[in-house]
Amino acid sequence: MTNKKPRNMQNRTIKRSGIALAAVALVLNSGCYSGGNNPGIEYSPNMYVSEAYEAYTQTGEMEHNPYGMTMREPVPGTVAQGQLGYLGYPEGYEASATWSNPLAPTHANVDAGMVLYNRNCQHCHGMKGKNDGGVIKSGQYPPPPWSGYDDAYIKSLPDGKVFHTITHGKGNMGSHASVLTPAQRWQVVWYVRSLSLGDAFQYAEEGAAAPVATSNDIVSAKPAWLTGFEFADVDATEYRTIWGAMQNVKFDNIRYRKMKDDSKPYLDQVATYLTNHPELKAVVVGHISSDTDAGAIQDGLSEIRAKAVCDYLTEKGIDGGRLSAKGAGADHPIASNDTKEGREQNRRVEIYFVK
Question: Do 326 and 222 meet the contact criterion of CB atoms below 8 Å apart?
């Protein structure tokens, strides 16, 4: 005899099973996925949110860690994997003037720098370094105080300072150290230099050692105060180092004529360079900012400061006949005189090597 359920009982069982399956589906749909960016209600959080300490999982604030992170800060004095190339560089923007690009300006390095530049820099500085990128054009951020990479200020800026700016940021520009390794940053420096110098930029043969030698044409067109002088050919990297050292020569304030003591070590670099290159002469040019009072301008303060530099170099053993002092006044700013930072840049002493 077969034990068989009545048909109406089978129907009730099927209906109950269908209702149960529908309920399960509803729970799964509402708990695990609700569409869009809304994760819905978590019925089984342990499946995908670890209860263990996970350094890279931030589900809540960690009150005992810096900044509330689950991650811990690196041990002081350690270097992240892949960042060993940064070891050995002194700290500080001014100190970076002495850094030299360890890579040769080969086509491979410049081309790699172009790719990295277009990926990370052209949004502000433009494809050709004209400060006409989309971010600047939007009007939300002001352009840099210099016109573009072909500006005399950028042409004479030491490679190390360009590297330092990419690494740490400067002004409105943030650090790019998290997206570019040290070697990549130096490649970007070479591409920036190629945009800056244009046809004057000289590539090195593949496998060549850095740097390549060029002449003083990195200063752009001959300034008016060099009338009657002829540029001498010097190594470009050495010249940028000396130029960067001169940017650290400061005087006590905009009216005072005494050079600050912490400027002297930088002039010692210049004296050493001139000692090692006895065939060179130098023209030292002083500049002041436009907020210097009229009396000081008429008094020839810019030339007085240039003479102070020449006097110091003479004390260091450089023949005074090799040195000339010129005053350019306030007519040649390299930054805006509307800001304190810009005025400080405009109060400067420059050096040009001539035959």
Answer: no
| 93 Cα distance to chain centroid | 10
CA-based nearest residue to 188, from 209, 211, 162, 168: 162
CA–CA distance, 305 with 289 (Å, rounded to integer):
13
pLDDT band at 246 (very low <50, low <70, confident <90, very high): confident
Homologous superfamily of 216-354: OmpA-like domain (3.30.1330.60)
End-to-end Cα spacing for the chain: 123
- Which token pair is 125? 């500085």
Domain ranges of the chain: 88-200, 216-354
Domain 88-200 fold is Cytochrome Bc1 Complex; Chain D, domain 2 (1.10.760)
pLDDT digit string (tens) for 291-320?
A: 755 555 555 888 999 999 999 999 999 999
Beta strand residue intervals within the chain, DSSP E: 281-287, 323-327, 348-354
Buried b (16+ CB within 10 A) or exposed e, 85-113: ebeebeeeebebbbbbbebbbbeebbebb
Neighbours of 25 (CB within 10 A): 10
* Three-class DSSP labels, 27-53: HHHHHHCCCCCCCCCCCCHHHCCCCCC
Q: Which two tokens stand for residue 244?
A: 């960067």
Residue 65 and residue 68: Cα distance in Å, rounded? 5
- Read off the pLDDT band of 259 (50, 70, 90): confident
